[in-house]
């Protein structure tokens, strides 16, 4: 399967082309560092800005630390409305498509939303040209990973400033591997299975070799993704509508993935109830020795005082089906976007620049974020403190985004059901994915 070339196959945004204007662009730029805002930010200052986002906990630094700091510096209050994913999308779609001024000034935009949402969001490049506040002269747009820029773009137009970049990496407890005679983390599916079996046997009855999210919910597709992609499989081609989910390589990835739970019993049976919070909680409670899960989960699992396994984890690239060269991972992320119909676009963008700045990007790692800034991920202090960021940066080089077209939400729901049937042993991988593929064909045909 060909690696994604930007969203929907469109041109990638070059970080070099997204540099903020030089001092010549902004009058008096040499004075920027001494004052937060300048007359270049012409919009009258609002009393309050409203942000619409999801209810995941990784925004702790934004809500608890950055927003109070922004209010202190500007006098602008910020209300962050947090909703579960489905209500979030419902509200955003209703307001954005109404044609009226939105009640929110900033949108927390997930990569899966951009397929339909992009036409309602400001072009970041145009916002950068107009920016006149604290970060107008030196925001460092070239520091964001190319992958994160692509995720926030459609047809080469950047619609949000990346904040969180998520990929899946192998989390493992090296002492447990060494105890069963394994000196290095697995690099192939065969090595992964061998390690999982030995670790499960050694950890009986409570600790298993592998953990993953098998509940029919928001996490199931993304946890399957690295196995699918590392087997050489994929979902479908957004441009041609060719469906790959039930081809030979994709089925090989699913057969291996499901066998860990249903055949080899190296995954806890209650994993069928696990989603994002549960994979973290069970890692903290030493229920598994390895997991291919979100990069940022490393922080609460390995650093939290609540974790029984604090300080016991290391990280490596996702194993490939036949060799390390086959390693691929899912790619996701969140950006902050400014609705074109918002009432305070200039100040909204100033807030976006504030929370995605170098300072707050680095601090966001404290509370479970995975920054989209390469300058943060490769910062020696960050690498030394968090451990996983170097591996994350390497995994990002071959990570592949889920489809980002307008009907991904519908077809993903069908895939969740198919994966659940397989993991619950209600259908074979082939029967389940053939059913999914048929449903996708109908969905795509109706969508045109």
Structural description of this entry:
- The two termini are 23 Å apart.
- The protein is globular, with a radius of gyration of 22 Å.
- The chain has helices at residues 60-74, 85-96, 114-117, 124-130, 146-151, 174-179, 189-203, 220-230, 248-262, 276-284, 298-303, 345-355, 358-363, 374-377, 380-386, 389-396, 408-423, 429-447, and strands spanning 48-54, 77-83, 106-110, 153-154, 157-158, 161-172, 208-211, 288-294, 314-316, 330-337, 400-401.
- The protein has 448 residues and is an alpha/beta fold.
- Strands 1, 2, 3, 6, 7, 8, 9, 10 and 11 form a nine-stranded mixed β-sheet that branches. The protein has a two-stranded antiparallel sheet with strand order 4-5.
- It has 18 helices and eleven strands.
Could you spell the SSE succession in H and E letters?
EHEHEHHHEEEHHEHHHEHEEHHHHHEHH
Low-pLDDT parts are: 1-13, 15-40
Task: Report how far the terminal alpha carbons are from each other.
Answer: 23 Å
The tally of strands reads 11
Strand content: 5-15%
Largest sheet: 9 strands, mixed
SS-based class = alpha/beta
Radius of gyration: 22 Å
Q: Specify the overall morphology.
A: globular
* Mean of pLDDT: 90
Count of helices? 18
Helix content: 25-40%
Layout of helices and strands, plus pairs?
Elements: E1 48-54, H1 60-74, E2 77-83, H2 85-96, E3 106-110, H3 114-117, H4 124-130, H5 146-151, E4 153-154, E5 157-158, E6 161-172, H6 174-179, H7 189-203, E7 208-211, H8 220-230, H9 248-262, H10 276-284, E8 288-294, H11 298-303, E9 314-316, E10 330-337, H12 345-355, H13 358-363, H14 374-377, H15 380-386, H16 389-396, E11 400-401, H17 408-423, H18 429-447
Helix pairs in contact: 8-9, 17-18
